[in-house]
Task: structure prediction
Amino acid sequence: MKHIFLLMTFLISSLAIQAQSIEALRDSMAAGNLNSQVDLAIHYLFGDDVEQDTEMALSLIREAADKGNRYGELWMGMCYKYAYGVETDYDEAFRWFMSSAQKGNISAMGMLGEAYKYGQGTETDLATAIRYYEQGAAGGDALSQHALGMQYLVGEGVERNWEKSFDLFKQSAEQSYPDALDMLTLSYFNGWGTPKSQVKAIQCLEALKQGQDESTIQEIDEAIANINEGDTLSAYEFQFRILPLRLAGYANGAIDEEQLVDLDGLNLQLGLMFVLTHYECDLDSLSISTHQVDDSITVHVIHMPEPSRAPLCKYAAYVMDKKNGLSRYYTLEKTYNLFGESGVADPYVVGGMAIDDDDDGGASSSSNYPDGFSHLNYGCIEGEPTEENFVNTILRLFKNAYSHQ
Result:
């Protein structure tokens, strides 16, 4: 609800061409200025400085639109899109937006982009949506700049480019477009297309508070407090919940292998899921190496920062047998030296995660993990805790786990 409120506040304030008094708008309309007529209609539509009169507003907007005024056509489309005085009718909204855009209205181009992206009044066509977003963004339309920035952020319909997304969010935010201010905040906080900066992230949040109601300001203040307090998503949760769940998503067909090993995509997913949360495990320091064992089995090894304490991981790995549709998640975990400083003990154990009640060939299991997973412990690794040794060990464990099938 916050985003809808902020968006409509922006539309009311930014799509009206001139900030004039009601009397000045009436005089200008009487002189035949159709733009002023639409501006006056917007005041009536939302009860801004006049008593709200939706019927009057719709009549003034329709008259301007019927005379071919592109601003009136834009707002006629807005009325049908958002049900201002009429029933929602995406076909009619699309018709008016198209007519306005063909006359060069950049805001209408952004609305056409939305229509094509979401299939509102027309066929869903992402390529056409992006083309209209690009035209609107080049003309300075804040909605188009934000929407195109989102496409570059996630790499949907365009090649992912966080530098471009950041530039577009910045252009849109400079016009106080609320969703762009949100995304600029996240870009600064997570380092998407720009150096990380908590200071600039907080500045964006402060700007987002301007003119908002008390509950919205409270939400923003809570986000600022979250940054200042250093709320943390632990490396442990990342290694033993988030990464295994991604493999479960792959096994269920929710993501493909390319998405599974896309670390930038993981960074983006977590930045949007755990909004304004610090990571104990710096995602920028992760890397992946791939071992193609044969024509069916692949091992993707995720290199973690050197673990500072038990039970954090040096490596985690996805082992996948594509021919048979099998997959497992394994870890090489730092453990406690139970023998003391003078004793001899290998400080790393091979572990992993599995769905509860899954037979795993003799591994010890702890079932106090959420989301239906158990933590498996296969004991200390034999030899040095190298990547090669880890891969060889988990391949043996993987084949043993399924040898009975």
Q: What stands out?
A: The chain has 17 helices and nine strands. The beta strands are 232-233, 278-279, 287-292, 297-303, 313-321, 326-334, 348-355, 364-366, 373-380.
